[in-house]
């Protein structure tokens, strides 16, 4: 066996809102839809209010402009605000439309006067895997787009201030009308296996004890994705790989990455040379050992040795790394 496929899509790759470019350039449509639009409010730590019940609390079902309600789904649900005023405020980003409702992202904080509970605000790492497709797509896009706006306030070509246009999906500078678009930094993430029943995991020194995952790194200028896979794995653990193949991708807006998933094959007989200061340890484990680690939960569980003296805790379901590992572990 030299290849496999993801058996489920990465959870932050899900989306249910229409986000076509014509929506962003149609100012009349945006104004017409503003009174019934909903706001995804994100604070400066990337958190937004969510509801963990199967139905909205009575206090959120109806109310004035300060009230919250459930945007969609069951289980964990994204809570959105109704709009105020006649038009989107400066800095608002059009996330898309779903079932005739437009969704916009804005920066904001918990509204204590309206009864908002700051403890109910959560970030993508905490709830991204629990939201439905609409909620996950809206929150991921909101976090990514707002992060970009905060770092693109001045033109990269002439230094003049920039201002948002096209529903928040382009910024134009004052001096020369230069256009800038949301930045995404591509990174590869690769599950390296031996073509049989062993997978290569590694840990960073800043991670809690026992935390291991697959290898990843940022794509450099002038580099293909496949070349980045080979380079990063060689740099991080000193291993040569073959049979590089694409698996899937998902946004990872921390602050603006796109994780592009790959698999590759390597010989476990090759010595491992963890990169000093970047990789604290690397280890080959069997499929059965991986299954035992997955059973412990998301970045947590009882730190029990599963590979000799190694303690292996695995990434949470919100990450593409978890989708890759689960798919490989499911092979017979």
UniProtKB/TrEMBL annotation:
Residues 182-307 form the Nudix hydrolase domain. One of its GO terms (molecular function) is NADH pyrophosphatase activity. Residues 71-90 are annotated as: Disordered. GO terms for cellular component: cytosol. Belongs to the Nudix hydrolase family. NudC subfamily. Gene3D superfamilies: 3.90.79.20, Nucleoside Triphosphate Pyrophosphohydrolase. It comes from Pseudonocardia dioxanivorans (strain ATCC 55486 / DSM 44775 / JCM 13855 / CB1190). It catalyses: a 5'-end NAD(+)-phospho-ribonucleoside in mRNA + H2O = a 5'-end phospho-adenosine-phospho-ribonucleoside in mRNA + beta-nicotinamide D-ribonucleotide + 2 H(+). Its EC number is 3.6.1.22. This is NAD(+) diphosphatase. Signal peptide: none annotated. It comes from the Bacteria. Its cofactor is Mg(2+); Zn(2+). Pfam families: NUDIX, NUDIX-like, Zn_ribbon_NUD. GO terms for biological process: NAD+ catabolic process; NADP+ catabolic process. Keywords: Hydrolase, Magnesium, Metal-binding, NAD. InterPro entries: NAD-cap_RNA_hydrolase_NudC, NADH_PPase-like_N, NudC-like_C, NUDIX_hydrolase-like_dom_sf, NUDIX_hydrolase_CS, NUDIX_hydrolase_dom, Znr_NADH_PPase. The keyword Iron-sulfur does not apply. It is an enzyme of class 3 (hydrolase).
């Amino acid at each position: 066996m030299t290849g496999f496929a993801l058996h489920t899509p990465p959870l932050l790759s899900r989306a249910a809102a229409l986000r076509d470019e014509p929506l962003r350039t149609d100012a009349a449509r945006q104004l017409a839809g503003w009174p019934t639009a909903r706001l995804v409010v994100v604070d400066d730590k990337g958190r937004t209010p969510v509801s963990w019940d199967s139905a909205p609390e009575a206090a959120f079902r109806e109310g004035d402009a300060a009230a919250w309600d459930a945007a969609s789904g069951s289980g964990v649900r994204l809570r959105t605000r109704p709009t105020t005023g006649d038009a989107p405020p400066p800095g608002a980003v059009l996330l898309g439309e779903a079932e005739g409702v437009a969704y916009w992202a804005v920066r904001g904080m918990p509204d204590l006067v309206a009864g908002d509970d700051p403890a109910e605000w959560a970030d993508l790492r905490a709830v991204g895997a629990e939201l439905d497709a609409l909620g996950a797509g809206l929150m991921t896009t909101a976090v990514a787009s707002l992060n970009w706006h905060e770092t693109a306030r001045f033109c990269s070509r002439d230094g003049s201030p920039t201002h948002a246009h096209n529903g928040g999906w382009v910024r134009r500078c004052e001096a020369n009308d230069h256009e800038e678009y949301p930045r995404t930094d591509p990174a590869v993430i690769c599950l390296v296996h031996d073509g049989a029943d062993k997978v290569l995991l590694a840990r960073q020194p800043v991670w809690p004890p026992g935390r291991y995952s697959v290898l990843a790194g940022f794509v450099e200028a002038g580099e293909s994705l496949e070349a980045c896979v080979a380079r990063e794995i060689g740099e991080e653990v000193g291993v040569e790989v073959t049979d590089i193949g694409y698996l899937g991708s998902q946004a990872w807006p921390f602050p603006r990455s796109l994780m592009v998933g790959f698999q590759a094959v390597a010989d476990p007989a090759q010595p491992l040379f963890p990169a000093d200061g970047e990789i604290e340890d690397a280890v080959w484990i069997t499929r059965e050992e991986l299954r035992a680690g997955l059973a412990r939960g998301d970045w947590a569980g009882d730190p029990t040795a599963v590979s000799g003296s190694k303690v292996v805790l695995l990434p949470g379901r919100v990450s593409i790394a978890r989708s890759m590992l689960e798919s490989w572990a499911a092979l017979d």
